[in-house]
Amino acid sequence: GEFRAWGGECKTVLSPICERQADGSVRQMEIGSYPVMGEAESDAALAAAVSAYDSGRGEWPTMPVAKRIACMQDFVRQMVAQRQEIVHLIMWEIGKSLADSQKEFDRTVEYIVATIEALRTLDNNASRFEIAEGTIGQIRRTPLGVVLCMGPYNYPLNETFATLIPALLMGNTVVFKPPQYGTLLFWPLMQAFCSAFPRGVINTIYAPGAVVVPHMLASGKIGVLALIGSSKVADYLKKQHPKSHRLRAVLGLDAKNAAIVLPDADLDLTVRECLLGALSFNGQRCTALKMLIVHRSLVDEFLRRITKAVGQLKIGMPWEQGVSITPLPGLHRTAYMTEAIEDAKAKGAQVVNQGGGAYCATLYYPAVVYPVKEGMKLYREEQFGPLVPVMAYDDVEEALEYVISSDHGQQVSVFGNDPVQIGALVDPLVNQVCRVNLNCQCQRGPDVFPFAGRKDSAEGTLSVNDALRAFSIRSMVAARQ
Ligand code: G3H
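^ NADP-dependent glyceraldehyde-3-phosphate dehydrogenase, sequence as received from the core. Prediction below:
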């Protein structure tokens, strides 16, 4: 709820949009900087959140819902006024196309508005008195305490706010750490955070996560860990919280979503959806299709068509009209793509479109890799980039077995036309993943639908309504009739 002066170290933010020089070196543009805070500042941020919550007695957790909603509406009004600056910061900092950066901003505003509306009627809020066996209960949803929110670099605004906004609306106080890439875009919102919410309700910490996050968790003062990021980081962080205190977790984690293409699939539609599913935002979506499993009778034609479609994608700078493939966030990511391709080639796969560098060192040409087999990196690792791994199957049980034996369980797509065959697949699949998409790519939205995952892919469910539930508990005030 206040600005603090900063006299310490600052980190320069370099855009991933960078030039390769004639001598092979890479020139990156500086687009801003942020303070590198440490444990002392994270202690202060946490203390502010704890004090604003004040064991449930604070102004925010006891504020009537209508007043909390008014604060959030004030915040959204101020946020909308900053649209252009925030959109440009997303584009320059993570290399997302201008069109997709605009979509991310607009979707986030729509999400906040929808969440506010959902709160008004959540779990029948309006008629919340219930009578049973002589007891009258006033049922309420009550907050959980201090929530630590962290979003990922690929949706830095949208997926940070996917937890932060419902957590606030339910009366919790928040500490949030912007993602490693996608940090500057929060600057234009700082004034709005300060003016829309009471002091200490929302606290931002700019710092290396590895330094401050375990430290904050070890204090035992965090009630809920809300992270959309990697499974490995989530496992590590959960262990930092003292065993003597209970920690709730709302997690959106790794995924390796597969598409199963049945022998009678409509290939035009299938290729179109698989292309979008695998390569939108360079394949950097947790919901992306990361393995295409095609019936052997179709695989040659499927490869011919998808390779052609991949070859026609426009590769370029994020502000170019109709661009599909844009720079990755750093050279470590292009290096990983090359490593995965080399590994597959060494183990017998063909790389149908050659991946490789370009005039911008972080631009990576998309590649179709076939046949991907067990033992290759691409078989199980989440590539999170512009690679399209393809496998062929003879018996649909093999495709099903791939999904069943995976450590991940977010979504699957099934392409086909025979309702009997599709029907027989859907029941086992929906017990393995949380969403089965019929003749369409995997995706998170529309945001009113549950977004969840089994196994290593998630903990808890996010959606407009489910997120409000995740950050609250159903409580009651009871009296005898
Ligand atoms: O990166 C993970 C996101 O939840 C993907 O969302 O399917 O709307 O692109 P999306």
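Residues 154-155, 285-287, 443-445 surround glyceraldehyde-3-phosphate (CB under 6 Å).
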